[in-house]
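Thread: quick sanity check before group meeting

JM: Hey all, I'm pulling together slides for Thursday and realized we never actually wrote out the predicted structure for the chain we discussed last week. Dropping the sequence here so it's in one place. If anyone has concerns about the input, flag it before I start.
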Amino acid sequence: MKKLIFLLALIVFAISSCMEKKPASFTRLGNFTPYQAYMEKLNGKVESVAEKGYWAIPEGDTYIKGARIKKHEFDSIGYTYDYKATFDIDGDLVSCTTFDENDNEVNNWSISKVNNMPARAEYKSNDTVRFHVLITCDESGNPVMYEQFSHLADTLVAKVEIKGSEINDTTIIKYYNFKGEPRGKDLRVYNELGLLTNSGNFMNDGTPVQTYDLVYNDKGFQAEATFFDKDKNVTGKTHATYEYDEKGNWTKLICKDDRGFTEICERVYTYFE
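JM (edit): ok, ran it. Output follows.
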C-alpha cells in the first residue's frame, strides 16, 4: 500500500534495498517504484502493474469509489502518485512511470542491464533526464552499491551502500554524500517469507529518525502499517483490506488511515505466460 514518502522524495534509489534474482514464483515490486519502502511481493511473473487511487465514499458497511485523487492531494496526505511499472521475464524492473489525475506523466525511472544484471537507472521529469544511477552488483546479481550522478554535469551527487538482502534477517543501507561522508543509514528486517516487517532510518550516531512496523494478512499483503517518530510515539497507522485476482494478487485495496480518510486503489496486471 502506498504510504508516506520519507527523506528525499525525488532520490528514489536512496531508500532502495537489494534486488535478489527472482524465482518464478514471484515478482518484487520495490526498487525505483512507489513501493520501494515496502518491497511488495507479487505472485507469478508479472509483466506490468498499473495502479490508480480514488477517494473512498462510505456506503453502508463498506465504501465505493469516489473521485480520482489529485496530485496535490497526494502531496498533502503524504501518499505516492499513481503509476505503471513494467518488468522483464527475469522479474527485474524495466521502467516505472508515475502519473497525475489526468494520466499526464509526472516522472519516470528506466533501468538498463549489462550481462543480465541491473546496471543503470535514469530518472526523468518534464521530458528531461535529471540524474542517473550506476548500479554495482555482486556475483549473484544483488546490487551492493548505488552511485547517483547529476546527468548534465555527470558529477557524483550521492552514494548508497547495501549489505544483505531480503533473504537475510536484516539489510543495512548506508548513505554517503559526494565526498564519501556518512549521512545516516536504514535498517530493514525481513521474515522467513521475504516480507519486510520493520524498517527504520537512523542518524550516524544511531539515533532513530523514524521507524515503521508492518503486519501481513494470510496472502502476504499488508494488513496494518504503524509509523513511529524518534521517540517511538505513533505518528500514523493504516489498515487494509483487499480483493484479489486468480493469481492471488490484489486488484482492489481499501486503505483506512487513522488520520480520518480512506482511499480505494485499483490495479490492473499483465502476466508473462
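AS: nice. The radius of gyration is 18 Å. The chain has one domain: 12-271.
JM: adding both to the slides.
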